């Protein structure tokens, strides 16, 4: 597969692994957080952990938009979908996300709610056009990457003068979450985790560019390397981080230069800032309330805001007290440290957010990596 | 005087409730459409059941329902699929499939022309696989009560003497052979889904594997421990099942697993693991190491096994993990698929 196989080359990977081993100081610990779920998935899917020396440890961050969506928002969506006049359009991986008391969109659908899986925002527009007598709500989630398509869809709805179309907006922002992880370590009493550097977002950075991380690298003195989602991207980014640590640098470096520049996608940023504005705070599963981390529709676009049209009220649901997702999302604990991991919490019946999407730290470890927890013979 | 009955208007007509009511209309549908397509001496006798002789020995029996959406897809339709699926389930016992039954649940308004095309595909698939559809049933339900057409087939076959293929038979050291590229069926179906249509040249691999199996049995005999067709859940689900049932684990080599570039690309795009995607014309065989080479050679000599490959081995593992050395150089688990990535693919 062109443009993919080149970045999965075994020989180059082995070369990079060798260089990382040679350059990583055995006396030092290198704890790097990969922010994005896409990175987490690549690590587990390609078995990168097997290729890194023991003292280079990857900590899986909160960068999976499905995982960080709080149960209350799912409950709100279910309540909306139960209205007979509503068709709720969602991305497929949201279907199994647990709400409160074992509910999910999948179960609501089975009970009769009209919930439709879509692959693109355009599908939702089409459904609205085909069902003029129904209210079509698009359940918008995701980081900076998926926000521009939602903005484009709102523009399209405006142009088509669609009156039966609204958006339930759950878009969130990356930099405030990264800052939150480093800044307020005592939320939920889980203590500070030492992070020596960040593998910065891939797709998110194609939109926002590398500039927003500069403050972050400077302020917290942590190196950031923006990296693509292919396994060679990851290996190279890890090497770049090792070098920054060794040289006591803390800069923003761009490994993903084939797609990311300093300023990002100006057109997309403009569209987003035209239509959306910051919420004072937004709840993240595992992190709690994070100030200025979520988006909502600006007042002129309120007619497309499902929360306004349907007078939706914020629902708060406490996470299962035994669930360690908060600590795992912050890198304080590993999936195996959680009592629920692999017992009652599996990808079929996720309790916590990290088990929901294949990009979550727990699901990735369960699905691809748990053989390492047992002293089994290595793959030869 | 013979009662006049208007001929079935295959081109413009459609099924209505009278075609399921046991009256003349139903008799006409059955004889005019199904008998025509399946044509054999057993159906011609017009009984509610069919009697046939079978040789002495062990028999196998299986049944399967088909609810695929869309009904027509690149490389086949629900009819050919309903024959291939049941023939393959019989063949996986190393058995020779002989007779099938077919039961149709049809939604009123279903076009005769489509039904005819589907029945003809079934007839052709049965002739190619050298099996006979010897009994059947037709029901018609109201509009909205079935998604066009559901088909259910059952089948019987005879196992060659001395052969006992079963999921608990795998032994540590056995080789894992697959008969060709993975994921073709699932990707072909997905490419035609209304909300997901994308351009691909991939066609379903739907095919009857009984002839391939016969050649493999000839080459490997009792060295073949078991066979499975990795349909829903793909290779991943099949190997995890076998690992549980045989109380062992598997080690696979990703590099050895054949994959069409179009399938790899579609899976990449949709975020699917090709090892989780369904096949309808592929098999996995667990074979004793000393028999692996001749069985693999027999597979490769058959048109349905051209791309056959040895992809790994069975290992001792109390946790029943299916592990894989990735083509990148690391290791990972090949786990059961979870959730409902692709409903109604067969």
Automatic annotation (TrEMBL), chain A:
<dbReference type="GO" id="GO:0051539">
    <property type="term" value="F:4 iron, 4 sulfur cluster binding"/>
</dbReference>
<dbReference type="InterPro" id="IPR042244">
    <property type="entry name" value="HypD_2_sf"/>
</dbReference>
<protein>
    <recommendedName>
        <fullName>Hydrogenase maturation factor</fullName>
    </recommendedName>
</protein>
<dbReference type="InterPro" id="IPR002780">
    <property type="entry name" value="Hyd_form_HypD"/>
</dbReference>
<dbReference type="Pfam" id="PF01924">
    <property type="entry name" value="HypD"/>
</dbReference>
<keyword id="KW-0408">Iron</keyword>
<dbReference type="GO" id="GO:0005506">
    <property type="term" value="F:iron ion binding"/>
</dbReference>
<keyword id="KW-0479">Metal-binding</keyword>
<dbReference type="GO" id="GO:0051604">
    <property type="term" value="P:protein maturation"/>
</dbReference>
<dbReference type="GO" id="GO:0070025">
    <property type="term" value="F:carbon monoxide binding"/>
</dbReference>
<comment type="similarity">
    <text>Belongs to the HypD family.</text>
</comment>
<dbReference type="InterPro" id="IPR042243">
    <property type="entry name" value="HypD_1"/>
</dbReference>
From TrEMBL, chain B:
<comment type="similarity">
    <text>Belongs to the HypE family.</text>
</comment>
<dbReference type="InterPro" id="IPR036676">
    <property type="entry name" value="PurM-like_C_sf"/>
</dbReference>
<dbReference type="Pfam" id="PF00586">
    <property type="entry name" value="AIRS"/>
</dbReference>
<protein>
    <submittedName>
        <fullName>Hydrogenase expression/formation protein HypE</fullName>
    </submittedName>
</protein>
<dbReference type="InterPro" id="IPR010918">
    <property type="entry name" value="PurM-like_C_dom"/>
</dbReference>
<dbReference type="GO" id="GO:0051604">
    <property type="term" value="P:protein maturation"/>
</dbReference>
<feature type="domain" description="PurM-like N-terminal">
    <location>
        <begin position="47"/>
        <end position="159"/>
    </location>
</feature>
<feature type="domain" description="PurM-like C-terminal">
    <location>
        <begin position="171"/>
        <end position="323"/>
    </location>
</feature>
<dbReference type="InterPro" id="IPR036921">
    <property type="entry name" value="PurM-like_N_sf"/>
</dbReference>
<dbReference type="InterPro" id="IPR016188">
    <property type="entry name" value="PurM-like_N"/>
</dbReference>
<dbReference type="Pfam" id="PF02769">
    <property type="entry name" value="AIRS_C"/>
</dbReference>
<dbReference type="InterPro" id="IPR011854">
    <property type="entry name" value="HypE"/>
</dbReference>
């Amino acid at each position: 597969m062109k443009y993919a196989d080149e970045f999965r080359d075994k020989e180059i990977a082995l070369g990079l692994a060798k260089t990382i081993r040679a350059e990583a100081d055995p006396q030092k610990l290198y704890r790097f957080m990969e922010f994005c779920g896409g990175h987490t998935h690549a690590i587990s899917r390609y078995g990168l952990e097997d290729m890194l020396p023991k003292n280079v440890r990857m900590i899986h961050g909160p960068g999976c938009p499905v995982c960080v969506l709080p149960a209350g928002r799912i409950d709100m969506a279910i309540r909306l979908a139960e209205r007979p006049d509503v068709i709720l359009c969602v991305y497929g991986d949201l279907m199994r996300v647990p709400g409160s008391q074992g509910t999910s969109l999948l179960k609501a659908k089975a009970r009769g709610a009209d919930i439709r899986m879509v692959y693109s925002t355009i599908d939702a527009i089409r459904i609205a056009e085909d069902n003029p007598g129904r209210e079509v709500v698009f359940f918008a989630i995701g980081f900076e990457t998926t926000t521009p398509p939602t903005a484009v869809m709102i523009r399209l709805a405006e142009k088509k003068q669609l009156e039966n179309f609204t958006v339930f907006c759950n878009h969130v922002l990356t930099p405030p979450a990264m800052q939150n992880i480093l800044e307020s370590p005592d939320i939920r009493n889980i203590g500070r985790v030492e992070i020596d550097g960040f593998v910065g977002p891939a797709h998110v950075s194609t939109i926002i560019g590398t500039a927003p991380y500069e403050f972050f690298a400077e302020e917290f003195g942590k190196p950031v390397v923006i990296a693509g989602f292919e396994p060679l991207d990851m290996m190279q980014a890890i090497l770049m981080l090792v070098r920054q640590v060794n040289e006591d640098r803390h800069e923003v470096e761009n490994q993903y230069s084939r797609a990311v520049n300093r300023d990002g996608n100006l057109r997309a940023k403009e569209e987003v800032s035209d239509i959306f504005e910051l919420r004072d705070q937004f709840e993240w599963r595992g992190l709690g309330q994070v100030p200025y981390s979520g988006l909502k529709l600006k007042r002129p676009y309120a007619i497309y805001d499902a929360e306004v049209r349907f007078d939706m009220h914020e629902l708060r649901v406490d996470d299962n007290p035994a669930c360690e997702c908060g600590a795992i999302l912050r890198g304080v604990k590993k999936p195996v440290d959680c009592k629920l991991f692999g017992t009652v919490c599996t990808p079929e019946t996720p309790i916590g957010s990290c088990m929901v999407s294949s990009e979550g730290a727990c699901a990735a470890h369960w699905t691809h990596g748990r053989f390492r927890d047992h002293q089994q013979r290595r793959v030869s | 005087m013979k009662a006049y009955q208007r001929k079935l208007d295959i081109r413009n007509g459609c099924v209505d409730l009278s075609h399921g009511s046991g009256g003349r209309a139903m008799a006409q549908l059955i004889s005019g459409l199904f008998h025509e397509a399946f044509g054999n001496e057993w159906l011609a006798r017009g009984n509610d059941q069919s009697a046939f002789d079978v040789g002495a020995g062990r028999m196998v029996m299986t049944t399967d329902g088909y609810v695929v959406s869309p009904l027509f897809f690149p490389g086949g339709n629900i009819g050919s699929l309903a024959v291939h699926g049941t023939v393959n389930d019989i063949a996986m016992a190393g058995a020779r499939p002989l007779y099938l039954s077919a039961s149709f649940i049809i939604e009123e308004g279903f076009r005769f022309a489509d039904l005819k095309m589907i029945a003809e595909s079934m007839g052709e698939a049965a002739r190619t696989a050298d099996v006979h559809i010897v009994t059947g049933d037709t029901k018609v339900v109201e509009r909205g009560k079935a998604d066009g057409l559901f088909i259910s087939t059952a089948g019987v076959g005879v196992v060659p003497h001395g052969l006992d293929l079963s999921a608990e038979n795998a032994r540590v050291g056995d080789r894992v052979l697959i008969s060709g590229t993975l994921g073709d069926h699932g990707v072909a179906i997905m490419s035609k889904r209304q909300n997901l249509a994308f351009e691909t040249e991939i066609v379903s691999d739907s095919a009857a594997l009984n002839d391939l199996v016969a050649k493999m049995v000839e080459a490997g005999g009792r060295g073949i421990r078991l066979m499975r067709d990795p349909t829903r859940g793909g290779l991943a689900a099949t190997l995890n099942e076998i690992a549980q049932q045989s109380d062992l684990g598997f080690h696979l080599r990703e590099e050895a697993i054949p994959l069409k570039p179009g399938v790899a690309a579609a899976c990449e795009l949709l975020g699917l693991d090709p090892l989780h995607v369904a096949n309808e014309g592929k098999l996995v065989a667990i074979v004793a190491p000393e028999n692996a080479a001749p069985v693999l050679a027999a597979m490769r000599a058959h048109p349905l096994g051209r791309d056959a490959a040895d992809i790994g081995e069975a290992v001792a593992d109390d946790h029943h993990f299916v592990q894989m050395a990735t083509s990148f150089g690391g290791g990972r688990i090949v786990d059961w698929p979870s959730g409902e990535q692709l409903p109604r693919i067969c």
